[in-house]
Design goal:
about 50% strand; Porin; Serine Threonine Protein Phosphatase 5, Tetratricopeptide repeat; 16 strands; single chain; two-stranded antiparallel ribbon; elongated; 14-stranded antiparallel β-barrel
Length: about 450
C-alpha cells in the first residue's frame, strides 16, 4: 500500500472513532463545485447538471451544492428537478435570495404562475439588489400578461395497468355460510364466492381551471376508468365521474367546493350512481407543513333490484396533515382522521351505520427518479339494526395497506408497480373477506 493510501486509511479510521459518520462524510470525495460554477458561466448547463446529479443523494442538504444543482437543472431544461433542489436550500436558509428568485423562474417554466408569483413577491420583500428586483418585476409583469391571455389552464392524464386480483367480487372468505335463521349451512354459488382473476385496466382524466377574478377560479373535471377481467367478465366495470365547482387560492389558503356525479357500470349495465357535494380547505402552516379539513355528502343509489336495498345517504368529514421532514430524501408523511354516518334509504336489513377511521402514508426517494410509498387505512363501521337472517347487529373493521414505487421515466411518463392488501373483518360471515391486488401502471401526464 502506497503512503498516500495509508494516510487516507488512517484518517478515515480516526474520523470514524472520533467523529462518527459526519466526519467521514466530510473527508469523502465531494463534487467539484468550482468546476460546476465555471461550466454554468460558460453556458454549459447540461455538463454542470450531469457533473452534480450523480452526487445528489450523498450531498443533498448542503446549501451550496443544492443551489448549484438547482441552477444547473433549471438552465438545462429540468425545472421539476430544480424546484426540489431549491426547496432544500430554502429549508436551510429561507432568506437565500438567489434560490428564491430561481425557484420563481422554475415555477414559471413549469407553468405554475401562482407559485412563481409568490416567490417573486417574496424576493421583493427582502429588499434585493436592483438587478434582482428588475428580474422579479419583469417576471411578475409577464405572469400578469399571461394570466390575462390564458385564463384557462388544463391538465390531464392517461394510464394503462395490468394486474392480478385474488378477489374481484369481494366474495366472502368461506365457501359455505351458517344461517342462524334456518339453522343450516348454505354453500355459496360460484358468482358469490371469491373469484381470482387477471385484469387489464385503463383510465383517462382531465381538469380545467378558469380564472374569474382575483383568487377565484371555476374548476371542472372528468375521470374515466375501465377494468376488464380475463375470465370473470360479469365483474368488468366502467366508472365515469364528472365534477365542477369553485376554487379560492390566495397566500397559504386553498378552498375548493365541488358538485360531482359518478356512474358505475357493471358488466355493461348501470349498477350504481352517486351524486356528491364536497369541500376541502388546505392551509399551509409552514414551509414544511400543510393542514386540511374536508367533508363529503353523497346520495348513493343502486339501480338493480337485487342490490337496491344498499342505497343510502352518506356523509363523511375529517382533517389531515402533510409534512415534509427530510428535504434531502424528498420524504413526506401524511395522515388524516375521519368520521361519518350513513342513512339507509331502501330498508337495508342492517339499517343505518356510523363509522370512523384513519389514513396515513409516507413517501421517500430511493434515487433521483424513484420514490417509495406506503399507504395504510383503518375503518370501523357499526350498524344500528339487527340483521334478521343472521340474528346479529353487524360490525365491520376494514384494513388496507398499499406498497409501491413511482418511477419517473421522464417529466411526463411514470411507471408505478404496486401491491395492495384489503381485509374486511365482520361478525356477519357474508361480509367477511380479503383480497390481494398486484399491478403495474404506466401513466402519461399532460400539463
Amino acid at each position: 500500500m502506497s503512503p498516500p493510501k495509508i494516510l487516507i486509511t488512517l484518517l478515515l479510521a480516526t474520523a470514524t472513532l472520533l467523529g462518527g459518520p459526519q466526519v467521514v462524510y466530510a473527508l469523502a470525495a465531494a463534487p467539484d463545485l468550482a468546476v460546476a460554477e465555471r461550466l454554468l458561466r460558460e453556458g454549459q448547463a447540461k455538463a454542470a447538471y450531469e457533473l452534480l446529479i450523480v452526487d445528489e443523494l450523498s450531498h443533498s442538504g448542503s446549501e451550496d451544492f443544492d443551489y448549484l444543482l438547482g441552477l444547473a437543472a433549471l438552465e438545462s431544461g429540468h425545472p421539476d428537478k430544480a424546484t426540489l433542489a431549491f426547496e432544500r436550500v430554502l429549508a436551510v436558509n429561507p432568506n437565500h435570495a438567489a434560490a428564491r428568485l430561481d425557484m420563481g423562474r422554475a415555477f414559471f417554466a413549469l407553468g405554475d404562475y401562482e407559485g412563481a408569483k409568490g416567490e417573486f413577491e417574496s424576493i421583493l420583500k427582502l429588499d434585493p439588489p436592483a438587478a434582482a428586483r428588475a428580474v422579479a418585476d419583469r417576471y411578475i409583469t409577464a405572469i400578469k400578461e399571461r394570466s390575462r391571455n390564458s385564463a384557462l389552464r388544463t391538465t390531464g392524464y392517461v394510464d394503462v395497468a395490468i394486474g392480478r386480483d385474488t378477489n374481484v367480487n369481494n366474495g366472502p372468505s368461506a365457501a359455505a355460510i351458517y344461517v342462524p335463521l334456518f339453522g343450516v349451512s348454505l354453500a355459496l354459488p360460484t358468482a358469490s364466492s371469491r373469484l381470482p382473476d387477471n385484469y387489464l385496466s385503463y383510465g383517462a382524466g382531465m381538469e380545467g381551471t378558469f380564472a374569474i377574478d382575483g383568487p377565484w377560479s371555476a374548476v371542472a373535471g372528468l375521470d374515466v376508468r375501465n377494468r376488464s377481467n380475463f375470465k370473470a367478465n360479469e365483474f368488468d366495470f366502467l366508472s365515469t365521474e364528472y365534477r365542477a365547482g369553485m376554487q379560492y387560492l390566495q397566500d397559504s389558503n386553498t378552498l375548493r367546493m365541488t358538485l360531482g356525479h359518478n356512474n358505475y357500470d357493471l358488466d355493461g349495465s348501470l349498477f350504481r350512481s352517486i351524486d356528491t357535494v364536497s369541500g376541502d380547505w388546505k392551509h399551509r402552516l409552514s414551509e414544511q407543513t400543510e393542514g386540511s379539513v374536508f367533508f363529503q355528502d353523497s346520495r348513493i343509489r343502486y339501480t338493480q333490484i337485487a342490490t337496491r336495498a344498499n342505497s343510502s345517504d352518506f356523509f363523511v368529514y375529517g382533517a389531515g396533515i402533510t409534512r415534509v421532514y427530510d428535504q434531502g430524501q424528498r420524504t413526506q408523511i401524511f395522515g388524516s382522521a375521519f368520521g361519518g354516518s350513513e342513512r339507509a334509504t331502501d330498508e337495508r336489513p342492517d339499517g343505518d351505520r356510523s363509522l370512523y377511521g384513519a389514513r396515513a402514508g409516507v413517501q421517500r426517494a430511493l434515487g433521483n427518479e424513484v420514490d417509495l410509498f406506503v399507504l395504510g387505512s383503518y375503518q370501523r363501521s357499526k350498524y344500528e339494526q339487527l340483521n334478521p337472517i343472521f340474528q346479529a347487529t353487524r360490525e365491520d373493521r376494514q384494513y388496507e395497506v398499499t406498497l409501491g414505487l413511482n418511477w419517473r421515466l421522464n417529466q411526463d411518463w411514470t411507471l408505478r408497480p404496486q401491491a395492495a392488501y384489503l381485509r374486511n373483518d365482520s361478525n356477519l360471515p357474508l361480509n367477511k373477506f380479503n383480497r390481494y391486488d398486484a399491478s403495474v401502471t404506466l401513466r402519461r401526464d399532460f400539463r
